[in-house]
Design goal:
With about 150 residues, this protein is of the alpha/beta class. It has a single domain, classed as Mannitol-specific EII, Chain A (3-Layer(aba) Sandwich). The chain has six helices and five strands, in the order H-E-H-H-E-E-E-E-H-H-H. The chain has a five-stranded mixed sheet. Strand 4 and strand 5 form a beta hairpin. Helix 2 runs antiparallel to helix 3 and helix 5 runs antiparallel to helix 6. It starts with a helix and ends with a helix. The relative contact order is 0.23. The mean pLDDT is about 95.
Length: about 150
């Protein structure tokens, strides 16, 4: 099952089974990975957290563990990349379609995109994964990078 997403994910920016208890905490964990790997500026995490408060990114999937795709403006990005996190227990994100609705989120794909063409490619890869319940179930049970590679190709 290949969606090409693995090619956009830095293996060191994958966090499996995080204990994060808030959306801000998981955003900062993943943003910290991207910053340490040279993908984003130090301003990136704060910018993503601020944006999430006004333009939420929770996607309802009719699952107990929905998905969020936080991101921010290209000015905070040094080179394109994606960080991914799975959570031991879902954290609350606001629904992007109805910001008053709170969604339990178990998967976070943090986008660091500074090129419009790359953004479309990244979103298509993320959406292909999100729309595949088997892929999400595989990521839910993934314990190692090899498990993630087996799901995402």
């Amino acid at each position: 099952m290949s969606h090409g997403l693995m090619q956009l994910l830095d293996p060191e920016a994958i966090v499996l089974g995080s204990d994060a208890s808030t959306n801000e905490e998981i955003i900062r964990i993943l943003a910290g990975r991207l910053e340490a790997l040279g993908y984003v500026k130090s301003s990136y995490a704060d910018a993503v957290v601020r944006r999430e408060m006004t333009i939420p990114t929770g996607l309802p999937l009719e699952r107990a563990d929905n998905v969020a795709v936080p991101h921010t403006d290209p000015e905070h990005v040094l080179k394109p990349g994606i960080a991914m996190g799975t959570l031991k227990r879902p954290v609350i994100f606001a629904n992007m379609e109805d910001p008053d609705e709170k969604l339990p989120v178990g998967f976070v794909f943090l986008l660091a995109i500074n090129d419009k063409d790359k953004q479309i490619e990244a979103l298509q890869s993320v959406m292909a994964t999100i729309q595949n319940p088997e892929a999400l179930d595989g990521l839910r049970s993934a314990r190692t990078l090899d498990d993630v590679r087996a799901v995402l190709g």
